[in-house]
Specification:
Length: about 140
């Protein structure tokens, strides 16, 4: 572990990779964008969601490492927002999202149902554009 960085040796703007025990979870090349007393703030070289991790997990990236480990940026699907109108696969009517917890989205029927709600996987939901809500309600 002697090749890992420390707070003193890490510099903002430096390109790094993560140690082997963590690189399968966070592959690719990262850029240090901030430093704290225990953790560094990282941004992926290709753009995307950042990461905070201990300095002991960081290894300076060489030019050849940067070219072989580069991972193309793949945008993550957007989650659902509270108040968004959706349809649920296998159910009739319109539903309103009130919580998105990642693997499950909590929805309740438009107009309410005595406080009852469903927990659905996000794949079973389809967003309804606001312009189409009126046509869904009128039944046409």
């Amino acid at each position: 572990m002697s090749d890992t960085l420390t707070q003193a040796s890490a510099t903002i703007g430096q390109r790094v990779t993560l140690v082997a025990s963590q690189s399968h979870r966070y592959p690719g090349v990262w850029t240090i964008t901030g430093k704290g007393p225990k953790n560094a703030t990282l941004t992926p070289a290709g753009g995307g969601r950042g990461l905070r991790c201990p300095y002991a997990y960081l290894i300076a990236a060489s030019d050849e490492t940067a070219s072989t480990l580069g991972v193309p940026y793949v945008p993550q699907p957007l989650g659902f927002f509270g108040g968004e109108v959706v349809t649920v696969a296998g159910r009739t009517g319109l539903w309103v999202v009130f919580a998105d917890k990642g693997a499950r989205v909590n929805v309740h029927p438009l107009g309410g149902d005595g406080g009852r709600y469903l927990r659905c996987p996000p794949e079973s939901l389809t967003r309804v554009p606001l312009a189409d809500v009126a046509s869904h309600l009128s039944g046409s």
